[in-house]
Design goal:
The protein folds into three domains: about 100 residues, Helix Hairpins, CATH 1.10.287; about 120 residues, NAD(P)-binding Rossmann-like Domain (Rossmann fold), CATH 3.40.50; about 80 residues, Regulator of K+ conductance, C-terminal domain (Alpha-Beta Plaits, 2-Layer Sandwich), CATH 3.30.70.1450. It is about 55% helix and about 15% strand. It is built from 13 helices and ten strands. Helix 5 links the parallel strand 2 and strand 3.
Amino acid sequence: MATWLPRKTNSTPQAGLFRGITLLVSLLIVGTIGFSITEGWDIHDSFYMTIITVSTVGYGEVHPLHTSGRIFASILILTWLGTAFYTTTRLGQWVLEGKLRDVLERRRLMKDIQKMKGHTVVCGFGRIGQIVAEGLEREGVEFCVAETNREIEADLQSTGYRYIIGDATEESILEEAGVLKAKTLLALLPTDADNLYVTIAAKEMNPNITVIARALDDRAEVRLKRSGADKVVSPYKTAGLQVLNVAIKPTVVEFMELVTSKQHLSLGLEEVVVTEASGLNGLSLLDAGIRSRFGVIIVAIKRASGEMVFNPVADEKIQAGDILVTIGKEPDLERLVASCLASS
């Protein structure tokens, strides 16, 4: 036995507002035509009479109304008042729901940010910041963006990133971004002065945080390092060296781009940390059999002391705290990571 159910509608405040405005305009047209028919007036007088009727300004009739004209005017004004009330209600609903939605979304974002730990704080969502954020998202790294310019908030909302709008040079904004619990901060603001302030503030709030800052000139690079930045990157130097390498070593650059972009091959470049519990701890590269077991290549080993061993020989010992810089296919790299973390 069939059961009738009311059809669901997807009416929204915007749709209701549009519908109300359409009805109001339609009533103006109907009123103009109605007075023209019932009273025999021209379009101008009929339109004017419609306006003063629905607006209730009380200017008086253009011409004396007949009985039919008065009945039409009464129906018109009652219909107009009902439609105007509906439209005003929809307008209020649209405004309030929009503001309420923004408030709730803001609260949700703040709760998500407060729960984050060991994440990355990206200060600045300019061209470099956007590229970095896309990369962090692709790699599955938790991060939060702190951006000063409110004009690009819509762009941030469309990305789905966690973000805060405010001056990142202020400690209160950095605290909201979770600097106290963050692992890394990227100072990518437009000026060297702002990046310097962010570096100093972040290191004062969380001495253990790793700060990577952007510098536009050499003097700023020196100051940022003195202020506690762990790494300073100059986009102009980097771009210049990239152009130079493309000019003189195009094949090498092409290979590195393929390895680091992860867009064309399953080949990847990875940092693998060796723990105390790892079965590789204390073994030489030869004894560990990394190439035969995992099918990856060890390009370099960074010791806990900071020493970098490039192209390590077969009898090079693997120690706890080492970071193995490796190249290989993603599944093989994942197996190596698991082996370096767990005991054999």
